[in-house]
Design a protein that fits this description.
The complex is a heterodimer of chains A (173) and B (100). Chain A contains 8 helices and no strands. Chain A has 173 residues and is mainly α. By secondary structure, chain B is mainly alpha-helical. Helices cover 78% and strands 0% of the residues of chain B. The longest helix of chain B is centred in the last third of the chain and has 31 residues. The chains are: A mainly alpha (173), B mainly alpha (100).
């Protein structure tokens, strides 16, 4: 049963990430990334990492992607998506570098022979087990992450004040 | 039977797609979305290694990566909105003021 689900979600993930990179409308890019994150969290559930899968679904697909959609819809982008498609100087170079990087990764993965024979362990990343480790061994990084989020809030507020507080940029709105 | 190699190969494919997006994207929002793809590919290989090694550390790293990525996206989108207000565009090539 599990192999079919793996191939199904892997196909959805690859297709959605291709849409993220190739679609010209930014709205489609964001919505495709939501689909990609959803299938990624399904893969996490297949790997029995339930907690991380749910966090990915809630934080990424729920909060971050809605934030992206807000910004894309606020910016009125549709007027210059077409001229965007016409001038693509770096497309060739970027594709060549990406393909050669894919070949490199393929060679590296192929040389990792042990991966084919490794047995899946029986660990299950439920809320109980992850929470126990998170609040014992990893409590310092956890608290530092809250500090990081606080600094991010300060940064966003100061950026917004720079735009709105001086009153100069309000004319452009 | 799905082995660790399958997950690593999938992660490599997603990483390469995201890398092409970062390098060819001229729209700043698309570059930011492709960066999210890179993070997602790394998260997938972390969880796969965690499952096949029998160690929870990989899943905890994914948890922290998601939190840091949320902060990064918030700051990045604030910068994009500011850029749109100043320059009325979000093309990366229009950012010329730091060149001299």
């Amino acid at each position: 049963m599990s192999p079919y689900f793996f191939y199904l979600f892997a196909a959805i993930l690859i297709f959605a990430s291709l849409v993220v990179v190739l679609a010209r409308n930014p709205l489609y890019n964001v919505l495709a990334l939501v689909v990609a994150i959803f299938s990624l969290s399904c893969l996490f559930v297949l790997l029995e990492a339930f907690f991380v899968g749910m966090v990915l679904l809630l934080v990424y697909a729920g909060a971050v992607m809605v934030f992206f959609l807000f910004v894309v819809m606020c910016l009125k982008l549709n007027t210059f998506t077409l001229e965007n498609a016409l001038q693509s100087r770096f497309r060739l170079y970027g594709t060549v570098v990406g393909l050669s990087f894919a070949c490199l990764l393929g060679l590296a993965a192929k040389s990792f022979i042990k991966a084919q024979t490794m047995e899946a362990s029986s660990i299950r990343g439920t809320i109980e087990t992850i929470g126990k480790i998170l609040f014992t061994d990893y409590v310092l990084p956890f608290e530092l992450t809250s500090l990081l989020l606080l600094i991010a809030i300060f940064g966003i507020v100061s950026l917004a004040q720079g735009a709105l507080g001086t009153g100069q940029d309000n004319k452009n709105l | 039977m799905i082995t660790l190699g399958n997950y690593i190969a999938l992660s490599g494919i997603i990483f390469s797609i995201g890398l092409v997006g970062v390098m060819t994207g001229r729209n700043v929002i698309k570059v930011l979305l492709s960066l999210e793809l890179l993070l997602a590919a790394c998260n997938l290989s972390f969880v796969a290694f965690s499952k096949f090694n029998g160690d929870y550390a990989g899943q905890l790293i994914v948890f922290f990566v998601v939190l840091v990525a949320a902060a990064e996206v918030a700051i990045g989108l604030a910068i994009i909105v500011l850029m749109y207000r100043r320059l009325s565009t979000i093309q990366a090539d229009e950012l010329r003021t730091m060149k001299w």
